[in-house]
Design brief:
Blueprint: H1 3-20, H2 35-44, H3 58-72, H4 76-89, H5 94-106, H6 110-123, H7 129-144, H8 148-160
Helix pairs in contact: 2-7, 3-4, 3-5, 4-5, 5-6, 5-7, 6-7, 7-8
């Protein structure tokens, strides 16, 4: 066998090996959802007759504004630290618990986010924007953890938070 014949067989063998190789399909890249934007959109659609607004505490309000600013500028770990400080001053404020849940959601800490949202739901109103935000956080957490059944249940609870305003005559 001369060098040309050997080269031809080697090339044919390489081509056959390449042709026989099965490429596994590459899954499409996972698109991350902007859960905070979705939660804000859901809360905006709440046309509830009930709005619960706690009496302001200047120290807590300052911390709340700092945390909101941190979340808005994509610094969720900083927002978490500030919110934990605010909760040390007022552990009964459901909006603080929900903001903490959202900061954890932004950090992809799904189970912790859901636990904080549950605390908010426990302390907060059963209808309105805050209710909707806490239930939607649970929905997001369950979706991200692959719990389709739990997500469906949480999605139904989201709708329970929406209560139409009474008709006025």
């Amino acid at each position: 066998m001369n060098i040309r014949t050997f080269g031809a067989f080697a090339l044919a063998g390489l081509l056959a090996a390449c042709a026989a190789r099965e490429d596994k399909p590459v899954p499409p890249p996972r698109v991350e959802r902007d859960w905070l934007a979705e939660i804000a959109a859901e809360a905006a659609r709440a046309d509830s007759a009930v709005d619960v607004v706690p009496l302001p505490d200047p120290a807590v309000d300052d911390l709340r504004r700092r945390a909101d600013d941190a979340l808005r500028t994509n610094r969720p770990a900083e927002a978490e630290a500030v919110l934990r400080e605010a909760l040390a001053l007022d552990a009964g404020d459901p909006a603080l618990w929900q903001s903490l849940a959202e900061s954890l959601l932004a950090q992809r800490r799904w189970e912790e986010a859901e636990a904080m949202a549950a605390r908010s739901a426990e302390l907060g109103p059963r209808v309105g924007a805050l209710c909707l935000r806490s239930r939607y956080t649970a929905f997001a957490s369950r979706i991200e953890r692959g719990d389709a059944m739990g997500a469906a249940q949480a999605r139904m609870q989201v709708e329970d938070c929406v209560e139409a305003r009474p008709t006025r005559f």
